Amino acid sequence: MHSLIKELLFKKLANPVLGQLSDAAVIRYKEGVAFTTDSFVVNPLDFPGGDIGKLAVCGTVNDLLMQGARPEYLSLALIIEEGFDYRHLEKIIDSVAFWAKRANVLIAAGDLKVVEAGAADKIFINTSGIGRLVRGRNLSVKNIRAKDKIIITGSIAEHGFAVLSSRRSLNLGFEIKSDCSSLNNLLLPLIKSFNQIKFMRDPTRGGLATTLNEAAESSGLAMMIDESAIPVSGKVRAAAELLGIDPLYVASEGRAVIVIAPEAAKKAIAMLRKHPLGRGACLIGEVAKSPKARVVLKTAVGTERIVDMLIAEPLPRIC
Amino acid sequence: MHSLIKELLFKKLANPVLGQLSDAAVIRYKEGVAFTTDSFVVNPLDFPGGDIGKLAVCGTVNDLLMQGARPEYLSLALIIEEGFDYRHLEKIIDSVAFWAKRANVLIAAGDLKVVEAGAADKIFINTSGIGRLVRGRNLSVKNIRAKDKIIITGSIAEHGFAVLSSRRSLNLGFEIKSDCSSLNNLLLPLIKSFNQIKFMRDPTRGGLATTLNEAAESSGLAMMIDESAIPVSGKVRAAAELLGIDPLYVASEGRAVIVIAPEAAKKAIAMLRKHPLGRGACLIGEVAKSPKARVVLKTAVGTERIVDMLIAEPLPRIC
Hints:
The structure is a homodimer. Chain A is α+β, with helices and mostly antiparallel strands. In chain A, 29% of the residues lie in helices and 26% in strands. The first copy, chain A, has two domains: 2-133, CATH 3.30.1330.10; 141-306, Alpha-Beta Complex (Phosphoribosyl-aminoimidazole Synthetase, Chain A, domain 2). Chain A is built from eight helices and 14 strands. In chain A, the strands form three sheets. Chain A has a seven-stranded mixed beta sheet. In chain A, helix 1 (2-13) packs parallel to helix 3.
């Protein structure tokens, strides 16, 4: 089994860096690099619009992009429960290979651990990633200023509801497709074109509300958002009502929140909308000086309310 | 729980790179970097001479060193079973922080996933690492030539037997201490001093026999080793006999196999022996042209036998 899996990995993920077969891949860099890590424990492993392999590639690729870096190399570490179906594993590795190619990243390093039955739930995947910073770009929450505009690249919460709706215990009666995607082709041209981008973040765990709260806390500024401007699909709205879950707190895996200087916002949205993954890009709000470190939602009926940080994790194993 | 753990991580692992609190850490590099990943699923979490936290740091640090790189940044990704004892977690994070400091690496990126009780066995840790190549060094199995000497930096198999002996199901009647250590201070000066080093590898999973078989296979050369020269402690010898396990196949986590040009071997061993972690350094054999891609052991009684690649994994969850 072990050697079968090794063969599988090397065959499907072959590239010149991984091919070195050493303890560490060697990469030649001349500039600053971004470095990130994420473990994926999603349950179930397959959901409408994706699977754990796609998620593990896209999640880490997007984390590098959020830093203003061109994703280049990923590591792939698998923890597999003994007895896990080999054909299913093959499908997952195919998915990793496919999405790595699509995202233009090489799997540079790998690891595989098999644990006894019952010691892990089927398969967990860790991907770490490194990427080269786009020259002259330095995205950071520290760059955010009052009057900056807040953009979202598409409708929210589809990933989280897709995973929930594919769990056997739930039956929504309709399918929601995850937005899970790697955003290289959408965001790299944008990063290069606009030096007015201050900050980017993908609203994954905890959703848009958590991402904006983190930005508010770290910058000490207020994120003022407009409920009626936030794109939410009809299916997500319906699922949210049925399940009693606020979509503001539900993960996307193929969207980005972008904070940008006011003069560049319109042009950036126009550019985003030209790409299939950015067709739903919207201006959803702006940054203000007060209330300090808070997210404020202007509701559809015209009132305002504080959107708090998520206290507990309501949706376990969404990614 | 979740926020408690986050606080714990940030408090214990604080450093300027992690402090950026972004999706990806940003690192300024000007030269080639080495990149590696490893997941740790060791059972039990504590064993004589170490614990999963120490192992997760030292294992990845050593993988970078084996490539001739100075370890600089690690990522740390935890998968924790719901209900795992918080004090135990704190102890593990203390160990990560302590050994990271000792190995002179920064924890630059992190991730935390909590899965429901029963979905993982207590805690799994992934560390990925990046390091800067020592200038002018390019270690690779491709550099190995016939007549090169094979060195081991100390006695073998102590880590594997330490973990085994600390499992409740086994009672050896004596304790074996793991050799688990980060080898920066032993190996960086050596790498800088000797441009005759061809190849290095830490004999972890599958032990010395597997490491040498991989080198033999990749180089197409023969690794001729001398049984009487291989350092094995008395306790390891006793445990090996009791359990019927060949120490050649058992993991070390603080040793390195070094292949070096013949003229430099003696001086390298003398330098290794000056350091506490290299006191047991020995010349254990040399490279030959044939039998191609094989490891040959000259036994204590003067006969020769082929040391095969490990077929099955005899010791699960050793690291």
